[in-house]
Design a protein that fits this description.
Blueprint: H1 2-8, E1 15-17, E2 20-22, E3 24-27, E4 30-33, H2 38-55, E5 65-66, E6 83-84, E7 87-90, E8 93-96, H3 99-113
Parallel strand pairs: 5-6
Antiparallel strand pairs: 1-2, 3-4, 7-8
């Protein structure tokens, strides 16, 4: 229900890659939202609060991480009371602008686990 609410909300924008728009990825109790600005992030948080009111499930904000992307990737601002990082992990994949770290975490570390 939560994913449907986020995906179908016309005011919540996602990241556009070509003709596709990506708003979130979700697996079990993990949700990663991709939004272009803090206003859209606030909309997602409002939807999460509405979901909590209906379901009793709430976001653990102490484990919530965010990263700036695109032209804001070097921003030092830390809005919304979130932990801001240079890389984030979503569904087991590390996203970072550092190509060496990304290759290490997503490929070589995985090879060692095999």
């Amino acid at each position: 229900m939560l994913a449907i609410a986020i995906q179908s909300n016309a005011d919540t924008q996602g990241l556009k890659i070509g003709k596709e728009e990506f708003k979130l990825v979700q697996y079990a109790d993990d949700l990663s939202a991709f939004v272009p600005n803090t206003e859209c992030a606030q909309l997602v948080f409002r939807l999460l609060d509405q979901f909590r009111a209906c379901s009793g499930l709430k976001v653990n904000y102490t484990e919530t991480e965010a990263t700036w992307i695109s032209s804001l990737r070097d921003s030092t601002a830390t809005p919304l009371g979130l932990t801001w990082c240079k890389s984030v992990k979503a569904l087991g994949i590390v996203f970072t602008y550092n190509a060496n770290i990304q290759l290490q975490k997503n490929f070589y570390d995985k090879l060692e686990d095999i």
